[in-house]
Prior knowledge:
mainly alpha, 6 helices
Amino acid sequence: MLRRFEEKRMHPITRLALALSFCAGCALVACSSAKEIENEIDCQGICQRYSDCFDSSYDVSGCQDRCENSVDRGDLTFEKVDSCNDCIDDRSCAGGTLNCATECVGIVP
């Protein structure tokens, strides 16, 4: 009777492989979600900064949607949006315009 039970048990290496696969899948989902959240924050920050510096009536929400959709479509990368946001973060409006044009081209007008 005990022997039958042992035959039906999953091999320890198989269990380990399944557990590691599950953990890896969870990590990929978590990383993807973290990038999505960071992208939303970066897009919002870039669009808000444009509104603050150049056009107070600029549609920040529409800009954020376009920015996020461009990343989703692959027209922009997470890295490009992050690079633009990092570049303008601690600069004045003029400093951001002069020094971050390359990083921010295609995100805001």
